[in-house]
């Protein structure tokens, strides 16, 4: 789209033009400036010969024009080699006079070219003075040009004669602005620095009236085109005044229009309204006929001090224009077109000058002349000018940390018309084209000088069809994008603290994995749960292998082995109260009892007992959890399990890395999953006949779920076997649901079998694999491991293609199920899918064992910390920071953190001196204990954070805890109320 | 601790309309670090601050005139330095706003103003992440902005307790010459969010996008280009890496395309990266103005002139796919918003 535009303008600029006669540098400049002033246009990429030609000359007063192109932009530029301070056109609109220092020239302007017509000679004494304003006379003085000099002299030239006619010297100081009366060209107003406005009748020798605004210097003055006896002035005090020239002494209306000097006024063609602009960068529209003088009818804010204002002539002669052009004294060289219907975004910007624009005048509704201190006079074809709206985004968007987002959006009204080939126009909308064509068809002489028709409807009084923003803004939450609920759940419940740093119990790695798997299961994150499970199993397998080694060398058995030696067991007796226990392991046939001996279960290790949570699981989920639950216990447990068994497999199992299965539950299902494969001999797995058919289903399901968490581990240990005749499913679930273990509720049964079918279909393949790969006899370790490896689908390509350089480099264990390798793949996968929580917890748990690359640890944990903090899990974040194996993270909380103390007595900040005691109170020995009354200096001190009362630690211990200073029980129950008399603060609520 | 169990995620998609109260187009919205507050800026020259109420709705907290022209962009400062908002505008200034204590006559005080040397419009701003390596030595707060003459300016506030003193520490020209005056321009920048490996910046300047990195002397130098743009680059977004071995950068382009580039560290030393375009979508069928990555750097949003938000997510093989389209009521011509899940 854009390319076609560029091409188009390269074409335009390549049009023939007057032969070049000037320096190359100028050419280059003007090649650029001669470009049409279109925002989306682009200059020719190189200043080649054609481009330079198009630029033409620049100096010496030769004209620079673009070639006549039908319907093309009629942009013209003319360089006068001297800064221009003002311009004025005659009432026909075919000639312009420009004035500056030492120059006063008359130019003839056509649609396609500007030519110089006359160079008026300034009188010698005026050459030293800038001519700050120039005005072309109106009928009957159409041949008069008036200039205003800095010395206060007004010069009148006769255009026909081409020479100075006379000089008017009454103002003591600079004349800022001149104005002819449109109805009677004999009347001329002059506004001066001396604070007066003078009315001249050119037929008389002296000024007719002097109006004193008493508001400092007068910056601008203008006759009301709608009511020829009125004029308005702009004053340095910020005032705008309306006068009737017949009443010399009475100011008809005074408005404190601007904050700071008012520089410009312009009457709206309707004769009722006036626009004023000033150094406060605002343009204000006033109703000059109404009494309300306080508030402007409209206001708009520009970027710089407004020096000139020119209402855009309205179409077809109606005085309903809402647009005006402004230029600025400094800081902003652009001419901006504003519309009060949409006061914030100017409809057009003409960026055509290199220096401040000094004069503005409309030829008609499309053509605007402007002159500037950069010595140029420019004719801009406004409908071709840049439209800022096209450079502004119509949409806004941001993500919240929790995956919600807020946006504001709007469809752009109409697609930009990108100058379709054939048409040389670059109207921005179809609407514009229609308007322009309409205008061209009945163009009327709507030059500014035409007489206003006061019967027109006043646009300012009718409700302006003001722009109403139609962007719609909304906050959107799509839960599937980021499961904040699960994140919160996991953040608070995942075990990351193996060593009890935060005050919790010590826990083994496997227990933590087990626990985390359960947590994930409860959040219905089955794949995450399986991933945890997988890690646990692989850890177990590795540990068991290590155990085997240690068995060979019994002397090497160490306590560390005990801590990390993992035997996973499969318990089916998830009886309500000690589900995870594998409890009562002593008697396999013993019925599950709530009162069975408490064993160190993971649930008990954690502050939140798991079994209670499991109870409230919905039946469907529970059914699955039953079938999948694998409980890890520590070494002690495995010992029990081993000793209680009377089957030969158990005795062998002890030496094997394979996971023991607890048969304590009467409802034990010897289902043939991979962990219980070693049971195959004792209880042959009931094999569904449709295994092979199910394999298809399984793969399909795997691919469907590939977006879910960890497809890598779809086929793990979970499965149930509905076809097993030995599986009283209803009974199996019964203990958990507090139903007698003997009763089999049909409802539950049905529920369970439903689930079972589902799971069996998805995991049927697992069985076939295990059946095929593992002989029924107890396999050697390696084969067992191979069975596991076969269960793993190949890792996703994203992982295999790009082995991360940051990950553990020395993978000494070549086996694919090695913990190291698994963890690496898991982390790769999690970071790719954005599950930084899983990756972070994994890194925290496994770093000690596996030693990840520090860069990886830092990035992942920083990501996790960021999310935790942003989602306001501050204490979890603090724990993660504390546990972080990277110093840069651990230290972050200690760098640049200032802790300020305030005195408990006077609340003043405690400085460094005085040994941590308030300097003021230290003189008296510090605060007094509320109980014993002794000063606190040098004692262990405790303060209630709520009421601020404090005392010696010993006293307060006695008060609140009922113990003596030595920690002995006093036999008194502690108070919860503040010991200070009359305080009433409940310092230690129980 | 409660024994609450999570139910399967059944929460419906929610779409809560609110009125920004801006009188013209809103050009940018920005959540604060915690997602509890939001700032909006508009062509109406106002900056508005919204707070989230208990019902999860935006409630306006502050609204004030912040600039003299259309405001392009708003960003929140790093949370460790307090409540700071930076804005940039076509009025050629970058302004730093700091929230004052309750009871102040103006809740948000303008603490500093920056301009480019050429006095041109400022198109984009960004706070770099606090680098881990410098955390011990420097407590400075830095800000980068890009002006319409094609210069990236880096300012630093050495003592962020006092935001009224900033010094220019680096200027990078990203174009061989400033663009001609009448040409439509577009500039944007985004920092790499990683706190390790030095500051990295992606800059969109006119119709090119390029990565800039610190050289040995701590100045930004041009590095890899993100190729293939056939129009003005409207926006760039650098995804949080979260420990990935590669970086993802998305660009929004006037040619109607959303592009995603993957930067993988080249083997061998020298800080070289291999740029690979992994996605190129033209679904908006109109100019694309904004791209943004979510907090985990896995979902990309794009906003276009069609008035729709599109969400893109990588499938399992790293291939980006359309996730959903969020259409505004008006752009659909209906009364309710549509969230199309793909």
Automatic annotation (TrEMBL), chain A:
User: GO cellular component terms?
Assistant: cytosol; GATOR2 complex; vacuolar membrane
- Ranges of Pro residues compositional bias? 589-601
Q: Which Gene3D superfamilies is this protein grouped with?
A: YVTN repeat-like/Quinoprotein amine dehydrogenase (2.130.10.10)
Compositional bias annotation for Polar residues? 661-674, 705-728
Question: Its Gene Ontology molecular function terms?
Answer: zinc ion binding
GO biological process terms, alphabetically, are: positive regulation of macroautophagy; positive regulation of TORC1 signaling
> Low complexity bias: where?
43-53, 579-588
Q: Name one Pfam family in it.
A: WD40
Q: Does the keyword Zinc-finger apply?
A: yes
Organism this protein belongs to = Sphaerosporella brunnea
List residues of the RING-type domain: 929-981
List the PROSITE patterns.
Answer: WD_REPEATS_1, WD_REPEATS_2, WD_REPEATS_REGION
The answer to whether keyword NAD applies is no
Q: Which domain of life is it from?
A: Eukaryota
Q: What is this protein called?
A: Restriction of telomere capping protein 1
Return the annotated region ranges for Disordered.
39-68, 574-611, 625-742
Record family assignment: Belongs to the WD repeat RTC1 family.
Which keywords does this Swiss-Prot/TrEMBL entry list?
Metal-binding, Repeat, WD repeat, Zinc, Zinc-finger
Where are this protein's WD repeats? 168-210, 255-296
From TrEMBL, chain B:
The answer, when asked if Nucleus is one of the entry's keywords, is: yes
From which residue to which does the signal peptide run?
none
Q: Where in the cell is it found?
A: Nucleus, Nuclear pore complex
Q: Which Gene3D superfamilies match?
A: YVTN repeat-like/Quinoprotein amine dehydrogenase
Q: What is its main location?
A: nucleus
An annotated GO cellular component of this protein is: Seh1-associated complex
Please name the GO terms of the biological process aspect recorded for this protein, alphabetically. cellular response to amino acid starvation; mRNA transport; positive regulation of TORC1 signaling; protein transport
- SUPFAM superfamilies annotated for this entry? WD40 repeat-like
Keyword set for this entry? mRNA transport, Nuclear pore complex, Nucleus, Protein transport, Repeat, Translocation, Transport, WD repeat
Q: Which PROSITE patterns match?
A: WD_REPEATS_2, WD_REPEATS_REGION
The GO terms describing molecular function are: structural molecule activity
**InterPro entries, A to Z:** Sec13/Seh1_fam, WD40/YVTN_repeat-like_dom_sf, WD40_repeat_dom_sf, WD40_rpt
Q: Which Pfam families match?
A: WD40
Q: Where are the WD repeats?
A: 19-53, 64-98, 281-313
Record has Protein transport as a keyword: yes
What does the similarity note say? Belongs to the WD repeat SEC13 family.
Name of protein: WD40-repeat-containing domain protein
